[in-house]
Design a protein that fits this description.
The longest helix is centred in the last third of the chain and has 27 residues. With 264 residues, this protein is mainly alpha-helical. A two-stranded antiparallel ribbon has the order 1-2. It has one domain. It is globular, with a radius of gyration of 17 Å. It contains ten helices and two strands, in the order ααααααααββαα. Belongs to the 4-toluene sulfonate uptake permease (TSUP) (TC 2.A.102) family. Pfam families: TauE. It is found in: Cell membrane; Membrane. This is Probable membrane transporter protein.
Length: 264
């Protein structure tokens, strides 16, 4: 009963955040799943991998509905999507395979550091000065490779990295958020495949899993996220997202401190 309620709750929150803040629901899904999985028979040495792999799998659902909502508002730059996707696919798949063989402690510390970075970025609302245009295919694909690799290590759709990059290249903020939602799909696909391949045939795997993707958690998250993602998009065009981001940043700091305390 606990997991029956907890997994959809994760999905509902992730869907809203994906559309509202452009930060990717994985920032919330990963720590929530890492807290839930120990009660569901997931081996301790695999908890972070399962949280990351399942988060990326759920983003496949969230990104589709979020992208459709943004595209209806003409806020997706498909030319940027085409150029960045090859690098995204290579970087995410490679990074995911590395992460599946990395120690759980390393992945947790990496995630905590990333949460600290995201929190500082949101509180300061810092954006690099927009002084140049988008680079060509090679440059954009290269940046995509870096975004994909980092995203695979933290289980997110890449919005915290791709939105500042596009803003730096003179893409309007709402369009950067919309395009980031679309970019989240190839990140999620490549990341999910890497966590399935990397976790295939491991000993002591719980039932209802494929590689490092927990199917029951994925079903619960997906059942709610596809409903709330369009709601997040509507809210992003109606609410003062800068103030919301600062409030969310405080919440992320609390999660960061809690995870750090757990490690210590």
């Amino acid at each position: 009963m606990f997991s029956f309620l907890a997994y959809p709750a994760c999905g509902a929150v992730a869907g809203v955040l994906a559309g509202l803040l452009g930060v990717g629901g994985g920032i919330i899904i990963v720590p929530m799943l890492a807290a839930i999985f120990p009660t569901q028979g997931v081996p301790p040495q695999y908890i972070q991998q399962f949280a990351l792999g399942t988060s990326l799998a759920s983003i496949m659902i969230t990104s589709v509905f979020s992208t459709r909502a943004h595209n209806a508002r003409k806020a997706v730059h498909w030319n940027i999507f085409r150029n960045i996707t090859p690098g995204i696919l290579v970087g995410t798949f490679t990074g995911g395979l590395i992460a599946t063989h990395a120690p759980t402690l390393f992945l947790k510390i990496f995630f905590i550091c990333f949460l600290g970075f995201v929190s500082a970025q949101m509180i300061s609302d810092y954006r690099p000065p927009a002084w140049r245009d988008m680079p060509g295919f090679i440059g954009t694909a290269g940046v995509g490779g870096v975004i994909g690799m980092i995203s695979s290590f933290v289980g997110i759709g890449g919005g915290t990295l791709s939105v500042p990059f596009m803003s730096f290249c003179n893409v309007p903020l709402h369009h950067a958020v919309g395009t980031s939602a679309a970019i989240g799909f190839p990140i999620a696909v490549a990341g999910t495949l890497s966590y399935i391949v990397g976790g295939w045939g491991r000993p002591d795997m719980p039932t209802g899993t494929i590689g490092f993707v927990h199917l029951w958690a994925l079903l619960g998250i997906a059942s709610a996220s596809f409903v709330t993602a369009p709601l997040g998009v509507k809210l992003s065009h109606a609410l003062p997202t800068a103030k919301l981001k600062r409030g969310f940043a405080v919440f992320l700091i609390i999660i960061t401190l809690q995870m750090l305390w757990g490690i210590l």
